[in-house]
Every structure is written in C-alpha cells, then in structure tokens.
Amino acid sequence: MRRTQPAATPEATLARIKQLPGLIVITGDEPLLVMEAADSLRERAREEGFTDRHSFVMDARSDWQQISLAAGAGSLFGDRQLIEITMPSAKPGKTGGQAISNLAKTHSSSVVQDALLVFKLPELDRQSRETVWCKDLLSNALVLECAAIPRAALPQWIETRLDRQHQTTDRDTLSWMADHVEGNLLAAHQEVLKLGLLYPEGNLSQEQVQTAVMNVARYDVMALRDAAIDGQAARALRILEGLKAEGTPTPLVLWALSDEIRNLARVYEKTRQGLRAQEAMKSLRIFGVREQRLSRLMDRLGSPLVDSLLSHAHDVDRLGKGIPVQGRLDDVWQEMSRLTLRLATSRSR
C-alpha cells in the first residue's frame, strides 16, 4: 500500500515510523526542503546501519542496470547500503521506466533489506503519476512529499525556524520578512540563520530584523499569475515590480497574465456550445489546482469582462512590439500594471 503523508513534514514522518522500509521516494521542487528531507533520511539510515552510501544521477540515457547491480552486490565490508537515485526529470525513458518498476517490486516498502533505495524526484504532475513506472514506484514506496511553502504560510514557517534558535518576533515583522524573501526559501533560511548569529536569544525588534535582512525575494511569472487570479492586487503589483527590476522579458510576463484569461475565454466558448464548466475544463486538460483557481475566477469574471481583458492583453502585446495603441499608456510596464490591477480587482455585476 502507498503511504503518503501530505500533511506532515518528511522529518515528522521519519520520526514516527519504527523502522525504515526498503524503498523511499522524496519528491518536491523546493531545493531546501528536499535537501533537509534527504539529510534527515541519511541520519536515520546511519542509525539503522546503512553506512555504505552510493549516489547516482539518472535519466533516459543512463545505464539503469548499474542500479540493479549495486542493489544486489552487497557491501565489501558487510555494511548495509544506502543507494540514492536522483532524477532531475520524471522522464526515465522506456528502459529506465522498466528498471524502476522492477526495482520497486523487489524493494517493497514493507520489506526490510540490506539495501535501502531512495529515489529523489521533482514534483510529480498528473501526467507523470499516470505512467506505469511511477504507479509501481509510489505504490511500493514510503513517499516523502516536500510541499512548497505558499506565501500565506511563509510567516509561520519563518516563525518556526526562529523558534528553533530560541528567537521570536511580532507578526508584522514576520510578514515584512516574508515579503522580502518570497520565492527564495533557501535565502529565507539563510537570513534566519543570520539573525541567530547577529542577535542573542529572545525577542527581535522590527528594526533589528530590517537591519539584518536583505531583500532577497526572487519573483516568478507564475506567482504573478496566481496573485492576480486570486485577487491579491497589492501582492501582484509588488511581484510585477520585482519582475521588472530583475529584467524579466515583457512577453513572458504578459504570457503569464493572459494565459488563464485565454483559457477562461475557451471555457466560456465551450459552455455556449452546451458543455458544463467542469466538462469544458476537462476537455481543455485543466485539472486540480488550476481547475479550482479558474473556477473561482469564473465566479468573479463574466464572459464580456473576460473578452475585455483579452483585448487589453492584445493591446499590451502591441505596445511591447513598439506599436502605439490609442487609449493606452506608452510604457508597456505601466500598461501591464493596469492589466494586472484589472485582473485582480474586476468583478462582473
């Protein structure tokens, strides 16, 4: 049986189980969380005698037979083996997929063996999870999911990290700090450690934190899209300013803003043809979190307003190409701000 713990941290899951299984999967796209999960697992593995560690980075072009050979060869000194397989992408190829399926079946999570196999994978999307090799792997492994920290949970995450070094600060300061490290969790971790080195244990004032913390936010276009769609106008505009300061190409920013507008326009078109909204999204391969977000946006924006926003996006595209548009600002970033604000705040009557 597959044993996933989406609500618990990998560290908490490892602390709860009595004995490590023969097959473990660490999955996630946040480098810091994946690194910490792997470190906790290695420490636990050493306690259980898995002291002979081997590491492999594998993809579709790799020789997957070497994993099987390593797992079956045993240690020269009789130690239990920890075999880590890092996959930069969830595309092992036909040969790799078959090898993973075979390894999963012979190193079931319910069987304790002298070789512990640990797969480190990026966050798995719906398409990856539907592949045979992935189903075999996840159904036989203990899965440690390193879920990304959403913006709303970032102040609490920082507070927890500060508490580990016996420091505290007020909510406003935590929120300020979250704004300045958003999108860069590793840098956030480093800034918390810096506070531990600069100041003694106890309460930290906002002035102390602001003096110590650099602006290390790293913005991405997907965060801009999500903030605008979720109606977070101030945050969306702040991210847009960050993208501008970082020199992000305007076509990429516009694509992120307009992509879901186009998707919603397609949904409305299909509903006019007789499909229900959920059926329309399914036909457009919009699932999961995207479906939920688009449904909320649909509740807020009617078809005429979507058409107006789409026209606005086309005008911004022309501005980016140096073509003046009557009724629009000459500066493409300023007009993009207006589009962002409309997307975040507009509501059909």
From TrEMBL:
Transmembrane segments: none annotated. Keywords: DNA replication, DNA-directed DNA polymerase, Nucleotidyltransferase, Transferase. It comes from the Bacteria. One of its GO terms (cellular component) is DNA polymerase III complex. GO terms for biological process: DNA-templated DNA replication. This is DNA polymerase III subunit delta. Belongs to the DNA polymerase HolA subunit family. It is an enzyme of class 2 (transferase). Its EC number is 2.7.7.7. Residues 25-146 form the DNA polymerase III delta N-terminal domain. The keyword Nucleotidyltransferase applies.
